[in-house]
Design a protein that fits this description.
The protein is α/β, with parallel strands linked by helices. The protein has helices spanning 3-16, 19-25, 30-44, 60-82, 100-117, 169-175, 225-233, 247-252, 281-295, and strands at residues 49-51, 56-58, 92-98, 121-127, 141-145, 153-161, 163-168, 191-192, 203-207, 210-214, 221-222, 239-242, 255-258, 267-274. A five-stranded mixed sheet has the order 4-3-5-14-6, covered by helices on one side. A three-stranded antiparallel sheet has the order 12-7-13. Keywords: DNA-binding, Transcription, Transcription regulation.
Length: 298
């Protein structure tokens, strides 16, 4: 039994909650994965996993062994990176998650530069507006917009994304423009539902150095960034959104920025990754590249 391979397999099973998915990630037959874990448990003399037809869970011994495996595997990766070409020439697959709009409008157009710099790194990109489980879904890095709540993860602040309050030109033609936040009582908005709470996100403005929130009447609520902008474009009311998402519409005149003297607070953008993966050379160069890319954003 290759104990190092067994540790890798065991940690992936715990993280993904599945023998078959872990075997697939490590290019192993499903039967081989089962046999390796049986041999590992026999070697240790303890049961590490509780298996049912629907799920796989760790035992108390499995929890302790998992924590030790993470530390050992991280140390091994660190040593190999320090004394091999991996530090100079990162390689392998990098699994990244980002919001739909940021990925489509900012990240994907910039990715050719990263791929040209690091041709041995392949990127597996998922785009979703929901809050994913990095460990459970086997993701190396997620780009999150907004304040972070999960202190068990490592995060690097990349930039602050300017926001704008805007509406479609057709909506402005029908209803006029608010001159100050207090005027918003006469207007409607598109409700954006938070992926983490499911609740409507209020508008926010910086007024005389204070942060004030406003909730507007709404006939439509969405939980996706692209749908949020599309609803505004269709005339359902005002939205408050990162500027990158509507920069083309503003330039074309199909959307109009309102309340410019009362700017919304910028939204932090962070690269977030599990603690046990912060030493990966490919992840390190990717996060450094992200910081460089964000610094060049207009």
């Amino acid at each position: 039994m290759d104990r190092f391979q067994a540790m890798q397999l065991f940690t992936r099973i715990v993280e993904l909650g599945s023998f078959s998915r872990a075997a697939e990630k490590l290019d192993l037959p499903r039967a081989s994965a089962t046999q390796i874990i049986k041999q590992l448990e026999a070697h240790l003399g303890v049961r590490l996993l509780q298996r049912t037809t629907r799920q796989v869970r760790t035992t108390l011994d499995g929890d302790a062994y998992y924590a030790r495996c993470l530390a050992i595997l991280a140390d091994v990766e660190d040593v190999e990176a320090a004394f091999s070409q991996a530090a100079l020439h990162p390689q392998g697959r990098l699994r990244v998650d980002a919001s739909t709009s940021f990925g489509r409008l900012v990240l994907i157009p910039a990715l050719p530069d990263f791929c040209a710099r690091y041709p041995e790194v392949s990127v597996e990109l998922s785009l979703t507006d929901r809050q994913i489980d990095l460990i459970g879904e086997g993701v190396d890095c997620v780009l999150r917009i907004g304040e972070l709540r999960d202190s068990s993860l490592v995060a690097r602040r990349l930039t602050a994304l300017p926001q704008v309050c805007c509406a479609s030109a057709a909506y402005i033609a029908r209803h006029g423009q608010p001159a100050r936040p207090a005027d918003l009582e006469r207007f409607e908005a598109v409700d954006y539902l938070s992926a983490s709470t499911g609740k409507s996100v209020p508008f926010e403005f910086l007024i005389d150095g204070r942060l004030e929130s406003r909730s507007l009447r709404s006939r439509l609520a969405v939980n996706n960034g692209d749908a949020y902008v599309a609803a505004c474009d269709a005339g359902f009311g005002l939205i408050q959104v990162p500027r990158y998402h509507v920069v083309r519409q503003l330039a074309a005149g199909t959307m109009v920025e309102v309340l410019q003297p009362y700017q919304p607070p910028p939204l932090p953008l962070s690269a977030v990754y599990p603690q046990n993966r912060h030493l990966s050379p490919r992840l390190r160069v990717f996060v450094d590249w992200l910081a460089e890319m964000c610094a060049a954003l207009p």
